Structures are given as C-alpha cells and as structure tokens.
C-alpha cells in the first residue's frame, strides 16, 4: 500500500498512475473495440484495492488537465479537446469514491484548473462546470457526493434526502439469444446479492467520518465499533450523518467548520457507545470496503411496447405511495383532449414561465419574442466567463433546495432496432395521457449497442437489410469518443459471454467488468445526444377502404415494391442481359414524389416523379454530422443504376401511381413492417407534450397562428459522457 506522506514512494506511485492515464487516453484513438474499456476498469479496481492512492491520482489528473489546456491554446482545434472529457470524468469518479481526506490545497488546484476550462466551447465547458459544481460541494461537505449517490441508488429511507433511483435494463429479444440472456442476467443480478442495507449504512457512516476527519479518525477502531453496535443504533447515527450533510450543503463553504466539528462529535459518540472491547490495533490506514455499492438492476427482455410504460407506472407508485398515479393518468386521458395536459408544470417544461404565458396571449408580443441565437464576439468571451465564474464562486454549490424528481434510468441493449422500439415507446409516453409520468419521474435514457453474434437471416417478406444495424452506435461513438471507448467497447464484449468455455461466463467478484462499466456509465453519462425523430403517416389499402397508420422512426425507413423484390434479388445474384424487354417491368415502377428541398429559404417545394424505382431508402442525418440542421437522405433505388437518385429533405411524401403497393420497414426491424402501403408522408416529429395549440386558441381571438413558432420537434435524448463534441 502506498504512503502519500513519503516523497519517494509518492513519486513512484504518481509515475505509475501517469503511465496508466496516458495509456488510457491513447486507447481512445485505437480502432479495436474488443479491449476498449479494460484500462479504465483496471484503474478503478486498483483504486478500490488501494484507496490511499486516490490523492496521487488526483494530482496526476490535474496536471493532465493543465497540459491539455495549454496544448489546446496552441493548436486551436476542436479534436485537441477530446482527452479532456475522460480526464474530467475520471477526476469526478475518483473524488466521489475516495476513502481518504483530500487536502484543501489539492482541492484548490482542482478548482483553479476547472475554472480555466470554462473558456472552452460547449460541451467541454458544460462538463467542466458540472464537475466544478460537484467539487465545490465536496470541498464544503466532504463525502456529500458519495452519500447522496448511495441514498438514491440504494433507496435508503430517510427524511432529509428523499430522492430515489431505479435502474431498468431492457434487452431486445431479437438480439439476445437464450444463452446470452442468461449470462447477462447472471452478471447483472450479482448486484442484488452484494447489497445489504445495514452494511451499506455502516459504510456510509464510516466513509463520511474517514473523508471528513482524515488522520484524526482511527478507521480500524471505528469500523470495529460500528460492527459492535446494534442495527437501531447504527440507524440513529446514519440519520444524524444524513441530516448533518444536508444542513452543511445548504450553508455551503460557510458551514464547513461546523460540519467537521459535528462529525467529530459523532465519531466520539460511536466509540463511546460501543460496549464491546475494541481489540484491533489501528494502523492509520483507511478501511477498505466502502467503495460505491452496486445499485439494484432490473433486467428483462423487451417483449411489448407497453413494457416501459408499465415499469414507470409501477416505479411511480412506489415513489408516491400517498398519491394515486393511476388516477393521475386516468384524469389526463379522460379530461384532456389536446396534445398536452395544459397544466402549469407542462408549460414550464416547454420553456414557458408566467411572463411568457402572458405574452403568448398577445400574439404580436409573442411573435416579437421569437427565440433567436445571439452571437458574441470572441473578444468578449473571456470577460463573460470571468463574470460567470465570479458569480458562481460567490454562491454556494447548492444554493437552492434539491428539487430533482425520482429518477428512472432506462438502459436499452441491442442494435438500431431497439432504439426504434424505444423511440415508439418514448413518443407514446410523451403523449398527453402519459405525460404525467414525465412530471413525476426524471427519465434518463442510456444505450449499450449489442448486435447478433451471427447474421440474422432476412425474411423474404421484409424490405429490411441485416447489415449496418449499429449505425446509431457508430454515430454516438463519433460525436463522443469516450462513449466509443467505454460503452461501444462494452457492447463488443457482451456477446462473448455466451461463447462456450468463456473465461467470463461465470460472474464473480473478480469478474465484474460488465457491472462496473454499466455503473460508471450510469453515474457519469450525464450529457445527452439528441437523436431527431420523424413522424411517418402511411395510407394502406384494405378490404374496408384505406387505413391510416401513424408511426415514428429514428434512423431508417425502407420501402420497396414487392413486385420487383424477386428481380432485385436474382439480379444481385446473377446479372443477366436478357431482361431488357421491358424497362419499367425490370428496372422498377414510377412513383409520385413531393418534398421540401433543403435550401436557405426552406420554401422550395419540388414535385415530380421518380422513374424506374424499385425501392426507397431514407436515413436520418443528425445536425452534429451535417454541421447544420437535421435532415433526411432519401435514395431512390433502381435495378438500373442509371435511374438511382438521391435527395436531401426534412419533409417528403411519395405514393404509387400504378396498381402497386409498398412494403415499409422502420428502423431495420421486421417486427415493424407494414404492407399494402399506397402513400407515405414523413416530417419531423413534434413533441406531443409541447404544443401551443393545447394551451391557447389564438386563432379564435383573431391572432396569428403561433404553432410554427412554439411547436417543438421531438428528439430521443441518449445519455453520453460529453454530448456532441464534433
């Protein structure tokens, strides 16, 4: 075990940690996904085994931040900021888990380094600011980050910090075979066997006293004293510590001295209250075993669209036992016919305060308040950041009461298809009858890409292709390299669990890579990447006339004409020159197309025909990749490449003009295939919970139609570590 007081040993330890951190950062540039994430995990396990090295690692990380900042000042390239994100998250994770008292002087260095990062562009400054707020709170109240995290994740009942969290892992049965499901379930459900409420509370008290009192706390004697106390006595001290932390957070830095003084009193009381003789000799080292415990993880296969909604309703019932969630949902369904509930809280979520609502009633004023981007000259940036940091430094890191709702963390595992299912369920939840769930719960979405070990055979009745089913995972990995290194690497390791004779087939204390990495993602993945959603309206032919189907998709829509599918497949296997007798019959059919062309005015509507088309493939192009705005790439395919065309648009409709129909597949999922489709209309999906028409009937008052100014496009927020960094 390293001794941070010995200069020689400290130098050797820091040198070793420096090499590990640099290897970790270099790993981000590697194209191989099989071993990614292992270095970060091994560093985490090293700190858990030797907590006293955390101070040395914090010093190394601060030096690394300063070096990266100096490098970016000279290079002035966005990609040069890439390594700042993993350093920030590693720094946060070390501090939240540290069992030792971190010197105030080191905290000051961390604070100064993070302040410098606020001049960087978003999202780097946003992650730096979030880390800075956490560090400020930890400086004023040592151990507060650890305590709050455990209380929320373990649902420890108390009257002072009541936030609860629940983790649901939903796996796509199309990807997870029975053996893979069993292995992953076994690895994740190890968390429940390692959880014990009484032990967790003892560890909370022990951790808080160790980090707050430092060397004045005789950790071994304290641990033995806590073991000797009864459950009720431990519960008493646990509640005292929780109350003390929450009171200290309210007072900020001004309450630090009082906080430490009261911790000292609790420490003495525990040693005095222990009636058993303390025989263990204290060696001056912190007691191991107070690392963050695993939260309870609920793993299930996603078999029905309503599974997610039912999970959220049940969780809300547990969080709010005194209120009827069912009646709230029923009231929304029965009494609200518009796209939104109309209540004040809904208006606030969509960006409206009391002043805004008053202005909306006056249409002219509402138009004058239309949102716009305000450009700021680069020369003013440093002064603005300086002003912001001064204002921040005068405030407590937690000036206001913690008003967060209970959090439901939804982790989906699968390929593009499972994100399509999530899109459908998320859109349904945002509808008015279930919007109450987003008021009662803070919904956080996570994605771990997992694909089939072997290719899945394509159904002859489906236009969906099997290749490229990790397009969204690839996109998330491009915009957030730390996500690519950590989460995409985890996704590559999961299918190997089901392989015969796998070394990782049995979960154990030495093999917690999946569980540890998932927890790291849940705790540090706080920056969402918003995937644009698109609404699709399909008019289908039926015996009773035309039926209209409304759906949403996130990444991919493919429509083909079944009459030409066999020709397309035979052509791809063995091209023949004898099929030239009828161009229309061989190369495709004619469909009518109408779309809005991407232009500066956004008003150029193009109408026409796409000749010789046997299929249409539409893919989403998010703004982060296009460096502009979201749009769709539409490819009209033909058996003859001469007739292949491609357009870019946000709105498009097409229909068959012959006695033919389309087969439409959404997000490459044969389970979401629609046949006998005659017309398809696609446009950006509007958020059902943020429609101006559900609040004010402006047209009836003679005002201007304001929906085009205030309707909000719906996107799927997938949590990553940095958000978009391109």
Reconstruct the topology from this structure.
Blueprint lengths: L6 H21 L10 H12 L4 H22 L8 H14 L6 H14 L6 H17 L3 H11 L10 E7 L6 H11 L1 H4 L3 H17 L5 H10 L2 H21 L4 H18 L23 E5 L5 H13 L5 H11 L8 H6 L4 H8 L1 H6 L12 H14 L11 E9 L1 H15 L4 H6 E9 L21 H9 L1 H13 L19 H12 L2 E6 L1 E9 L2 E9 L2 E5 L4 H9 L9 H5 L1 E9 L7 E9 L1 E7 L1 H4 L4 E7 L7 E12 L5 E5 L2 E16 L22 H4 L4 E6 L6
Helix pairs in contact: 1-3, 3-4, 3-5, 4-6, 5-6, 7-10, 10-11, 10-12, 10-13, 11-13, 12-13, 22-23
Structural class: alpha+beta
Helix content: 40-55%
Shape: elongated
Q: Mean pLDDT across all residues, rounded?
A: 79
Radius of gyration: 29 Å
Polypeptide structure, described:
It contains 28 helices and 16 strands. By secondary structure, it is of the alpha+beta class. It has four domains: 142 residues; 251 residues, no CATH class; 97 residues, no CATH class; 145 residues, Sandwich (Tumour Suppressor Smad4). Strands 8-11-12-13-15-14 form a six-stranded antiparallel barrel. The protein has a four-stranded parallel beta sheet with strand order 2-1-3-4, sandwiched between helices. A two-stranded antiparallel ribbon has the order 5-16. β9 and β10 form a beta hairpin. The longest helix is centred in the first third of the chain and has 22 residues. It is elongated.
């Amino acid at each position: 075990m390293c001794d941070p007081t010995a200069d020689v040993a400290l130098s050797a330890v820091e040198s070793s940690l420096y090499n590990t951190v640099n290897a970790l950062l270099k790993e981000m540039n590697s194209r191989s996904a099989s071993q990614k994430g292992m270095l970060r995990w091994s560093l985490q396990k090293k700190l858990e085994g030797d907590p006293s090295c955390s101070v040395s690692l914090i010093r190394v990380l601060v030096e690394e931040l300063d070096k990266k900042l100096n490098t970016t000042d000279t290079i002035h390239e966005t990609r040069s900021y890439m390594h700042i994100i993993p350093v920030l998250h590693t720094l946060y994770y070390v501090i939240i888990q540290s069992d030792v008292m971190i010197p105030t002087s080191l905290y000051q260095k961390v604070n100064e380094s993070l302040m410098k990062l606020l001049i960087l562009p978003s999202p780097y400054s946003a992650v730096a600011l979030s880390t800075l707020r956490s560090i400020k709170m930890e400086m004023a109240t040592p151990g507060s980050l650890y305590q709050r995290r455990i209380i929320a994740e373990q649902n420890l009942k108390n009257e002072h910090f009541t936030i609860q969290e629940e983790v649901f892992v939903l796996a796509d049965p199309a990807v997870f075979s029975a053996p893979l499901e069993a292995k992953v379930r076994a690895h994740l459900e190890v968390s429940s066997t390692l959880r014990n409420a009484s032990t967790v509370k003892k560890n909370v008290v022990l951790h808080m006293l160790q980090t707050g009192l430092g060397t004045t706390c005789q950790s071994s004697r304290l641990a033995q004293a806590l073991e000797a106390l009864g459950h009720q006595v431990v519960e008493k001290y646990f509640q005292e510590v929780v109350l003390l932390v929450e009171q200290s957070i309210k007072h900020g830095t001004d309450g630090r001295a009082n906080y430490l003084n009261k911790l000292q009193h609790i420490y003495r009381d525990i040693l005095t209250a222990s009636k058993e003789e303390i025989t263990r000799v204290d060696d001056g080292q912190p007691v191991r075993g107070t690392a963050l415990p695993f939260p309870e993880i609920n793993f299930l296969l996603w078999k029905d669209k309503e599974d997610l909604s039912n999970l959220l309703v049940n969780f809300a019932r547990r969080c709010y036992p005194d209120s009827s969630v069912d009646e709230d949902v029923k009231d929304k369904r029965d009494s609200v016919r518009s796209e939104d509930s109309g209540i004040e809280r809904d208006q606030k979520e969509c960006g409206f305060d009391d002043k805004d609502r008053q202005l909306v009633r006056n249409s002219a004023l509402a138009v004058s308040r239309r949102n716009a981007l305000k450009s700021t000259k680069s020369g003013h940036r440093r002064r603005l950041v300086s002003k912001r940091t001064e204002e921040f430094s005068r405030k407590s890191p937690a000036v206001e009461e913690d008003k967060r709702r209970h959090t439901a963390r939804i982790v989906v595992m699968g390929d593009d298809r499972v994100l399509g299912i999530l899109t459908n369920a998320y859109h349904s939840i945002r509808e008015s009858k279930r919007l109450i769930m987003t008021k009662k719960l803070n919904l956080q979405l996570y994605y771990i890409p997992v694909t089939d070990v072997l290719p899945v055979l394509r159904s002859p009745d489906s236009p969906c292709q099997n290749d490229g089913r990790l397009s969204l995972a690839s996109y998330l990995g491009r915009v957030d390299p730390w996500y690519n290194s950590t989460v995409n690497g985890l996704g590559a390791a999961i299918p190997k669990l089901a392989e015969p004779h796998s070394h990782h087939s049995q979960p154990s204390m030495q093999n917690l890579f999946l569980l540890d990495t998932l927890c790291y993602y849940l705790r540090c993945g706080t920056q969402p990447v918003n995937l644009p959603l698109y609404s699709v309206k399909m008019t289908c032919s039926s015996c009773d006339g035309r039926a209209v189907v409304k759906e949403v998709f996130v990444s991919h829509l493919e429509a083909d004409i079944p009459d030409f599918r066999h020709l397309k497949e035979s052509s791809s296997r063995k091209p023949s020159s004898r099929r030239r007798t009828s161009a229309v019959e061989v190369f495709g059919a004619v469909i009518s197309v109408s779309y809005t062309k991407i232009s500066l005015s956004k008003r150029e509507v193009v109408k026409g025909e796409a000749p010789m088309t046997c299929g249409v493939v539409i893919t989403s192009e998010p703004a982060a990749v296009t460096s502009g705005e979201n749009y769709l790439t539409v490819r009209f395919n033909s058996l003859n490449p001469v007739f292949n065309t491609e357009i870019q648009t946000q709105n498009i409709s097409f229909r068959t003009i012959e006695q033919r129909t389309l087969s439409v597949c959404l997000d490459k999922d044969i389970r979401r295939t629609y046949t006998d489709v005659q017309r398809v209309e696609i446009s950006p999906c509007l958020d059902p919970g943020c429609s101006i028409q559900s609040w004010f009937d402006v047209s009836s008052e003679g005002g201007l139609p304001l929906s085009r100014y205030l309707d909000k496009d719906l996107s799927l927020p997938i949590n990553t570590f940095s958000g978009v960094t391109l």
